[in-house]
Amino acid sequence: MTKAIDPTAYQLKSVASGSVFNDTGWLLDAPGETQAGLIRAIYEKKQLHLKESDYGLFVFADWLPVTRFLMGSSAPVTYKSEGLATKLGLTRLYITFSGFWPERNALMRSCSFKETEAYSVAARIDGRQPGKVLVVASAGNTARAFAAVCSENRIPLLLCVPEDNLNALWFDRPLNECVKLVSTQKGSDYFDAIHLSTIICGFEDFYPEGGAKNIARRDGMGTTLLSAATSIGRIPDYYFQAIGSGTGAIAAWEANQRLIDDGRYGSHTMKLMVSQNAPFQPIYEAWKANSPEMLFYDDDLARQHVETIDAKVLSNRKPPYSLVGGLYDALINTDGEVLVVTNKEAKAAAKLFQEAEGIDIHPAAAVATASLIQAIKKQRIDTTKIVMLNITGGGEERFRQENILYYLKPDLTFSPDANVDFIRTEIQKLRW
Predict the structure, then answer these.
(1) Contact 241, 305 (CB under 8 A)
(2) What is the spatial distance between Cα 330 and Cα 236, in angstroms, rounded to a whole number?
(3) Is pLDDT of 99 > 50?
(4) Cβ contact 224:248 at 8 Å
(5) Which of the residues 79, 124, 219, 341 has an alpha carbon 20 to 30 A from that of 130?
(6) Ranges 58-62, 179-183, 313-317, 332-336: which has the least confidence
C-alpha cells in the first residue's frame, strides 16, 4: 500500500571528481568515470523537516532519494539511557534502537535496522526497471528485511544467501511468490553469496540492489543518526556501531555532513567508533596497518573465522573500504577508530544490556556494546561527552515468542564454483 509523498528533489555527486549530475534511474556509479568511488545524493532541502510520525521511516523523507511512501515501516528510536549509562558511568549515553520494542515504539518486524535500507531502496524504485528482478545478496538480516518489504509491496526479488545462514530467514507471515531465494551450499559465506548475485545480475532481466553504492541504502541507514540528532538536538560526539561492510558507518558520516549543513545541530564531526567480531577482523587489520587498501585475507582462513564468530552478519570480506568516499575516508575524516571484541565479550555485553535496558539485542549490536565497554575501560573516550550507541537489531527473542514464524526455503542451491552457464540454466527455471 502507498500514499502520497512529495519527493525531495536531488542530484547526484561523484565523491571522486566532484561532478554533479541527474539521477537517470538506479545509478550506482558516476557515468563515464573510471576511478572507484561512491556517489552521493545532494538534496535540494538543506534543512531536515520531519513528517508526521505515522510515516514511519519516511519521517526523514526530506533526505531520502524516494519516489513514494510505503506503508508498514518503523523509524529508528533514540532515547537517553539510564540503566546502561549508570552501569558504564556515562552521563550522556543515547541509544538508537532498531528492532522490535513496542514500549519504545520500535516496530521493525525483521528486528533489524536493515529495514531502514529495504524500505528506502524499495521506495527508490520508480518504474524504470519494468519486468526486471531486484537481486540482493545477504548474510541474513538484510535478506529478511528485503524479503518482507518486497513481499508486502509486490516487488520481484531474488535473494542470494549462504545455506548456513538460512535460519535467519524467518517471517511472521507467508511471503508473496514475488520473492525467490537461491543459496550457496554449506561451508560457503557472504562473499560467495555476493559472487553468485554478481553473476546473476549479468543475466537479462535482473538488476543489482547495489550494496554500499546505492544511495538509497546508505541514506536509509543514515536515518539512525538523524533519529539521534533530532532527538538529542545535537550531533553526538561519539558514534558506536559494529560493522561488516562498514556501510552504516559511511552513511552516518554522510548524514553528519548534512546535519552540519542544516545548521541547527552543531558544526562538529562525530568520532566513528566501529567494531568487528574477532577473529574475523579484516577492516581492523587494514586500519591498524595504516593501509588505505584492504590487506590480503586468505579465503580458507576467512571461512574458518566466519564459522567461529557469533555475529556472522559482520563477515564481509570485500567491504567498501578503499573506494573514494568509502570507509577508510570516513575513518580518516572523523579521526575514527576500529575496535575488536571477542564472542565472550559480546555475550557479556548482551547480557548486561538486557539486564540494564530490558530488551534482548542481536550479536552484532552486542559487539557494538562490548566495544563501548572496552573503550571506556581503556579510556579511549571522554565519558562526559555525548555518546550514541547504535543498536542495530534487537527484540528478536520477544518477537519469536509472540508470533508464529514461517521460514523461507531456497528454490535453488549452488556450489560456490558453479559455472555461469549452469547458473543461467537453473535461474531461467524460476518464474516471477
Answers:
(1) no
(2) 16
(3) yes
(4) yes
(5) 219
(6) 313-317
Q: Mapping DSSP to helix (H, G, I), strand (E, B) and coil, where does residue 389 land?
A: strand
Nearest-angstrom CA–CA distance, 273 and 19: 30
DSSP bridge pairs for 2: 70
Q: Which three cell numbers stand for residue 112?
A: 533489524
* Straight-line distance from the first to the last Cα atom of the chain, in angstroms, rounded to the nearest whole number: 20
User: Nearest CA to 142 among 169, 171, 172, 167?
Assistant: 169
Question: Mean per-residue pLDDT for 292-298?
Answer: 91
3-state SS assignment for residue 407: strand
Q: Which residues contact 283 (CB under 8 A, 6 or more apart)?
A: 243, 246, 274, 276, 294, 319, 321, 327, 338
How much is the pLDDT for 140? 85
Q: Tell me what the mean pLDDT of segment 60-78 comes to.
A: 95
Residue 342 has a CB neighbour count (10 Å cut-off) of 16
Predicted pLDDT at 167: 93
pLDDT value of position 90: 98
Write the DSSP assignment of 23-92 as a string of letters.
--SS--S-TT--S-B-EEEEES--S-----GGGGGGGGGGGS--SSEETT----EEEE-SHHHHHHT-SS
- C-alpha to C-alpha distance for 230 and 105, rounded to whole angstroms: 16
Q: Are 370 and 275 in contact (CB under 8 A)?
A: yes
The domains of the chain, with CATH numbers, are 77-111+216-399 (3.40.50.1100)
Distance CA 261, CA 370 (A): 32
